[in-house]
Amino acid sequence: xxxxxxxxxxxxxxxxxxxxxxxxxxxxxxxxxxxxxxxxxxxxxxxxxxxxxxxxxxxxxxxxxxxxxxxxxxxxxxxxxxxxxxxxxxxxxxxxxxxxxxxxxxxxxxxxxxxxxxxxxxxxxxxxxxxxxxxxxxxxxxxxxxxxxxxxxxxxxxxxxxxxxxxxxxxxxxxxxxxxxxxxxxxxxxxxxxxxxxxxxxxxxxxxxxxxxxxxxxxxxxxxxxxxxxxxxxxxxxxxxxxx
Length: 244
Ligand SMILES: NC(=O)C1=CN([C@@H]2O[C@H](COP(=O)(O)OP(=O)(O)OC[C@H]3O[C@@H](n4cnc5c(N)ncnc54)[C@H](OP(=O)(O)O)[C@@H]3O)[C@@H](O)[C@H]2O)C=CC1
Ligand SMILES: O=C(O)C1=N[C@H](C(=O)O)C[C@H](O)C1
Fold this sequence. Notes:
The protein has about 240 residues and is an alpha/beta fold. The protein has 9 helices and 11 strands. The chain is elongated, with a radius of gyration of 19 Å.
């Protein structure tokens, strides 16, 4: 049995992880950490923790895991740059899988978008559209941010300079280097990401649709199994899936 701590256990994702862990049968739930719980006792009892909480708390969890010497899987999104640096620093002491999206399809989408951007080149405009449930706190989604980073990396651009979050008023003609990012919030949408490449006389759209949270929960459990025993470092879900 692998002893697991779930951070944000009462949340949408925390509940999905607990359900899938119980179903798998080889996990012992050693701790559930939510508002008001001190994290360290539960981390100390566990072989690995999975965090789906909120950016500030997730940063504290990464630091507490490093102090306890325990591996960690971070699924939380929306970290501010200073928080992200602290998570990376924790990864110098323990192994961390940190991914904005644990579904296999989205990690394949990352690969396909890298390839499409390289093949299509600067003649094609890139726009990202994401849609999520009304309860989501951060925007754009961590997955949309990662998709934008990938396009910027391949095109040798600084994302800060070329990201265009929505358009209104009179933005004028689109600049070729812009990467448009658009967030929709409605109802119970689990997760939808489309990358649209618009070129001369044609449009290519790559879409991933998460149908239930099980895809994220199963991916996070797969990452947790993988990360136990790894050397310190910050790993991606693409590393876990062997896509790198
Ligand atoms: N990487 C991936 O594949 C995925 C990532 N996510 C990300 O996971 C995160 C959680 O999503 P979701 O489960 O939908 O969100 P929820 O709001 O449903 O759950 C978050 C949980 O964390 C708890 N929490 C928040 N702040 C704290 C805190 N300071 N201390 C202790 N507990 C806290 C919440 O408690 P309370 O309600 O009392 O505030 C809640 O139980 C988000 O960042 C989301 O973007 C989501 C899906 C997939
Ligand atoms: O908050 C969510 O629900 C999700 N968040 C992740 C993100 O921000 O990319 C992943 C998934 O799309 C669901």
